[in-house]
Amino acid sequence: MRKRYLLTVAVGLGALAAPMVAQGPPGGRGGGRAGGFPQYTRQLAPPDVIAKGKTLYDDKCSECHAVDLRGTLDKHGPNLLRSTETLSDKQGELVGASLAKHTPPLTLPQAETFAVSEYIHSVQAKMGGQGSPPGRNPVGLSYDVLIGNATDGAAKFTKLCSSCHSVTGDLKGIGAKYADDPKALQGAWVFGRTSGGGFGRGGGLAGQPATVTLANGTKFEGKLVRKDDFLIILTLADGTRKSFTRTYTNDPIGTPKVEVKDPQEAHKKMLLVLDDPKNQNMYDITAYLATIK
Ligand code: HEC
Ligand code: HEC
Q1: What is the rounded distance in angstroms from the CA atom of residue 252 to the CA atom of residue 185?
Q2: Is residue 267 predicted with pLDDT exceeding 80?
């Protein structure tokens, strides 16, 4: 059975790929009233962070705060477009504090709180001023994702995806797997994960190949166990663990340097290649994948 409201994960990618400095509505810049509001002047996160935040929002927040962020009556979720907590939030700190006050408290990894708050900011950046007409839809909602053309989707798949995937191999049966939930199907391929359950636990990169380069040039290669601002732990090829303390004394980026291979890199780039104003590429590919039973 289809869920009643299917919001595309990638609605607004057209806008996401737009210049990163948010702009206000017409007339809002250059000393206009709206020009000083943080939602129109703040620097937005990169498109892939916002896209990730959107998926998280749909997954974990929309039930109570509505897909268009304007809140729900039945679940008592307040309107997040006009909430002080989201308007004054800088990098997820106020949104995170609000989440902790939910009953029961909601806890997300910091990177996810950041992504959700950046998504909310990105919607706020597009909304009109106080006087904007009721019913205005700043997220450009679409409630169904199965609106593409599967035949076109097949051609696009061959062109864009077949170098890494095959519908008779690794993606066999993908449509059947998500027969009940096309939104999840779209999320799975757009972000290259079908395991569900949210993004980037523990940074999401644990287990990935990583290289640590010390200040003197010595390199260590292994699999990432943990990485935060102050500590990096790798499992080296011989199975031993090695940890590195990171310092910022002479280097704002941190020493030692660490590079982690992100398996989703290809998909993040792909999002930008696929981008078109109406998300037609995305809908077509999802429609095609839905036929792979
Ligand atoms: C089960 C319903 C529910 C879910 C799911 C939920 N919220 Fe809420 N949220 C509420 C309710 C009810 C309030 C207001 C009362 C309170 O603070 O507990 C609220 C308050 C907030 C506030 C403070 C708004 C204000 O003006 O005070 C923010 C910010 C917020 N939620 C963000 C989120 C985000 C982001 C998510 C998803 C990660 C989320 N919420 C998920 C129900 C929910
Ligand atoms: C350059 C290689 C590359 C291209 C091109 C590519 N992908 Fe992927 N894809 C990957 C990798 C690598 C993963 C695994 C990502 C991970 O582990 O998080 C993945 C994961 C996926 C998954 C999840 C599979 C699973 O079993 O979890 C789907 C679905 C998917 N890709 C669909 C697509 C579609 C559709 C396209 C074209 C529009 C595409 N990919 C293009 C490399 C690619």
Answers
A1: 40
A2: no
